[in-house]
Amino acid sequence: MTEIEKETGMTDAECEYWSDFITNNPVQLGPDLVQMGIKPGFAQHYLPLKELDNDVMEYLRKQATTFHKSQIQIINDLVREKLAVGV
């Protein structure tokens, strides 16, 4: 067993593969949530649905706050109401 294998638990070939992979494939970061107006620690309270109108997002935010639910739960409730009515 080589020193690398003892330290990493991988063979020399595996270490070389991952070294090349990490070097040649840059990290792809997601959107900057702070620039989107989402405070750190509050991302789970927002939906990444860019297609929704601002008034719809505001409605979801207020309903979620009022009823202590997530925005997803509010959307689920609205859709279930429509399904129950048969629309």
Notes on the structure:
This protein has 87 residues and is mainly α. It folds into 2 domains: 1-30, no CATH class; 31-87, no CATH class. The protein has 4 helices and no strands. Helix 3 (54-67) crosses helix 4. It is elongated and about 65 Å long.
Could you give a quick summary of the protein structure above?
With 87 residues, the protein is mainly α.
SSE topology:
Elements (H helix, E strand, L loop, with lengths): L2 H6 L3 H13 L29 H14 L3 H15 L2
Helix pairs in contact: 3-4
- Per DSSP, what share of the residues sits in E-state strands of 2 or more residues? under 5%
Number of distinct helices:
4
Global mean pLDDT: 82
Q: Which geometry do the CA atoms define?
A: elongated
What pattern of helices and strands is seen along the backbone? Answer: HHHH
Radius of gyration: 23 Å
| Structure class | mainly alpha
| Uncertain residue ranges | none
Fraction in helix: 55-70%
Keyword list:
4 helices; about 90 residues; mainly alpha; 2 domains
